[in-house]
Amino acid sequence: MTSSEEPNREREKETRDDLTIGSDSTYGGVYGSISGSHLSIGSLVEGKYRLLDSLGEGGMGVVYKVEQVLLNRQMALKTLTGAEVSEQSIKRFHAEAKLLAKLDHPGLVKVRDFGFIDNVKPFLVMDFVHGRTLSSVIKTAGVMPLDISIKIFVELCFALGYAHGKNIVHRDIKPSNIMLTTPGLDSENEHVKVLDFGIAKLMHHGINETAALTRTGEIFGSPFYMSPEQCMGGAVDHRSDIYSMGCVMFEVLTGAPPFAGETSLSTMMMHQGEKPLSLKEASMGRDFPPEIEELVASMLEKDPNNRIQSLLDVAQILIGIQKGLASGTILNKPVIVPPSAEKVRAAHKESNLLAKYLGYVLCVLLLAVIVMQTLVYFNNQAPPPPPIENAPDLPREKWCTFSKDGQYKIFQFPKNYSVGHLVYGMHDEIKLPALGEVTVPARANLMFVPNSLFLAHPQFLRNFNSHDVSIIDFREAGITDSNQYKITPRAPMTDDELLYCNKLTGLQGLGLKNVNITDAGLDYIKDLPLKHLNVDGTDVTGAGLKKMRCLKNLIYLRACHIKGGSDIIKALAGSKNIQELSLTGSDLGDEDLKYLTTMPNLKTANLGYNMRISDKGLKYIAQLKNLQAISLDQTSITPEATLQCLKQLSLQHRPRISRFGWTPEQLDDLERTWPRP
Hints:
Blueprint: H1 6-14, E1 44-45, E2 49-58, E3 61-68, E4 73-80, H2 87-101, E5 111-117, E6 121-127, E7 132-133, H3 134-141, H4 146-165, E8 178-180, E9 192-194, H5 199-204, H6 209-212, H7 228-231, H8 238-254, H9 264-273, H10 279-282, H11 290-299, H12 311-322, E10 329-330, E11 333-334, H13 341-379, E12 400-402, E13 408-412, E14 420-424, E15 430-433, E16 437-441, E17 447-450, H14 452-456, E18 471-473, E19 509-511, H15 519-525, E20 532-534, H16 542-545, E21 556-558, H17 565-571, E22 580-582, E23 604-606, H18 615-621, E24 629-631, H19 639-646, H20 664-673
Parallel strand pairs: 17-18, 18-19, 19-20, 20-21, 21-22, 22-23, 23-24
Antiparallel strand pairs: 1-2, 2-3, 3-4, 4-6, 5-6, 7-8, 8-9, 10-11, 12-13, 13-16, 14-15, 14-17
Helix pairs in contact: 4-8, 4-12, 8-11, 18-19
C-alpha cells in the first residue's frame, strides 16, 4: 500500500469502526463484513447474556447482539481488546466502568454492566439502539442540510456537555461514534446517541496517546478528528472534545474533514500547525451564516484557551442560528465566541501599517490607544460565569398574572423555547406547550410537566407564584422501562434541584417517579402541603418519607420499589386521608398489614411483589371494608385463603393476583366473582 492510499483506508475504517450499539439492517448492512469474532454465537457470558449475533468489529473490540436471559431483552455486549490484564488494570477498569455507568442522559448510550470473560477479556454491556451512524449517513447522503445538521449537533452538544459537567471526557468523537436513531434526513424526530463514551480511556489509561496510534489496528481518537493537544500526546480535557466536535461539524457541512494528510502522522501535524479553510472555501463556494463560520473557527482553534469553552454554549449559539437570530443566546445572555488568533494577528498587522504611513506622532497616538484599549479589554474581561442561578440576566419575572376580570390565568413563558407543558381537565385533558403566552381558566387544576431544558435549569421554578400550579410532574426526568425499576434519568435532576420547590406553598402534588433523588432531597419539600406524592423507583427510603410533615395529609402515595416500606406504613397509621397506597416491592410483611386497618378511607392498596406477605396477613386485609381495588400478585398467599379473604371485601375492580398453583375450579370461582371487563 502506498502512503497516498493510507487516508482512504483510514476513512474506510471510520465507516465501520466501533459500530457498537445499533441495528443498521434497515439501511443495507452499514456494519459491513464481520471478521475476527472471538466468542461463539449461542454461548452465555457470565451466565446472563446469550450471544445472538456479531454486529461489528473495530479497533477497540468486537460487538455482539445479546439477550439478557432473565429479563428477556436485547442488549449490546462489547469485548475490549488491547488492555493489559493485571490486578491494577482490573481495579482501574472496574472503577472507570462504574463511572461510565453513572452517565445518565438520553443522548448517551447507557452502560448497564461490565466484567471480565474468563478473568481475561474485559467487556461492557450497553443498551441496544436501532439506527445508523453519522458516518454512514455522510457516506450515503454526502453534505447534510444546514437545518438538519444543527438539530443533530444541538442534541450532541447537550449530551456531551452533560458528561463534561461530570468531569468526563469522551476523547474519541467521530462520525462512527454518533448514531441517529430514526431514519431519514428530513425527520422532525431525528435523535442522537453518542457511542463508546470513555472506552478509549478505559483501554489506554496512562499510555501516551501518540504512541498508541502506532499499535496495529488500534486508533483511538481518529487522526481526522483529534485535537492538537491530543496529537501531541498531552493531557486532554473537555476542550479536546470541543475541537473534535468542530471537526465533525466541518465534515458534515462541507463533505470532508478539515485536515486529511497522506498519512496519519501528516494529518496529526496539520492539526497542530495548519489553518483550516473556511466552510465556504472547503465546500467550493457554499454560503453559510457568518455566525456558524465564526463558531466552527472558534471550535478549531489550536490553543484550547482560544476555543469556545463549553459545548452548552455551542448548543445555544446553534439554536440562535436556527431561529434566525443575529447571534446565539443562553437564556437571554449573549454568548461571546473568542476571537481567533488569526484575527488578532491581522488586526495588529493593520495597525502597524497605519502607523507607518501616518508618521511617528500618529504612531505614538495609535500605540497609546492600543495600550488603553488593551487595558480596558483585560480589565473588563468577565470572570468565569457565575452559576446561572445568580446570573443577573436570568429571566426572573413571575410568569403568571390574572386577567382583569379574574377569570383567567395568563402565563408569559419564554418566547423562543418551550420549558414543558401545562395540563388540565379531568376527562377531556387539555395539553398546552409552555411557550410564549398561554391562557387557562383561573380555576383550572393545573399540572406542569417540565421538559429537559427546564430540568437543566430548575431555578425556573422561582418564576412560578406559590399557587400558579397544583401539580408538578417530573416525568421527563426518567425513562419508563417495564423490565426494570431503577431507571436511567433523561435529564439532570438530583436532590439539590428540589430546593426550588420549597416556595411553592400551594403545590398539592409532586411526581418524582424514577428521579435520581434521596432522603436529602425530601428535606427540601417536607413542609409542602402535598396531597399527592409519587416517589416510585427513587433512592428515598421509608425513614426519609416518615419525616415529611404532609405524610398523614396525603390522599395518594406511591412508594414502590424503595427501601423501608414498613416505616412508611407505620407512619401512616391512623391516617383518615389516605385513599390510594402503593407499596409494591417495598419489603412488607404480614404484621405490617395490620396498620392498614387504621386507615378507614383506604380504597386502593397495591401490595404486590412483597414475598413476606402470606395467608397470615390476609386476616388484616379482610377487615378493609371500604377497599375497592387491591393488588397481591407475586406474594406468598395461597389460592384458597385468597378467595376466602377477597370475598369478604366490597371490591369494585378485579383483584390483581398471581394465578400460579390455582386449580381450574378455583380459577372458575375467581372468574364468576370478578368477571373480566
